[in-house]
Amino acid sequence: MVVGVSDSLAGLAALRRGIVEARRGARTLVAVRAWEPPEGETLFRRWPEPSWARLWADEAWQRLERAFELAAGGPPTDLRIVRRVVEGPTGPVLCSIASSPDDLLVIGMARPRGLAALLHRRPVHRHIPARAACEVLVVAGPRLLPRETRILRRGELVDGPGRLTGLMP
């Protein structure tokens, strides 16, 4: 059971579903967080800086752990979990890890709109099903109203009657 982990709402939904599927099949959960240098792999290869690579890898580890906190309140104690942080594009990384026909690969899918849709050129939910050697389960992220998306991005979670106070139920 391999889950592509991100801290997006779709990624958190995929992690929750991966936990459910791992429990159902009594399987090991392999949680994978792929990362790439912010300026791109080509530029980084030209002028590699090991200290920056360590910083980005550490940040990926922190995001992996934070995803478990946000999705399930922490890593489940009843499952065997293998955590992996791998440098590279998400699609190829996940396809290489979930390479057995017996694997199940769980990924989240958010449909960006507007400018985000134009900038998002390599959607993982298109790359993986076309190239994966195993069964792929694509989990849709929740649909939000534009105002809700803005509130979540800015972290404007406030207390008060009828107002959103947290991400977890």
TrEMBL record:
Pfam families: Usp (PF00582)
Domain UspA: 2-139
Family matches, as InterPro entries: Rossmann-like_a/b/a_fold, UspA
Taxonomic superkingdom: Bacteria
Protein name as catalogued: UspA domain-containing protein
Gene3D superfamilies: HUPs
Biological source species: Streptomyces alanosinicus
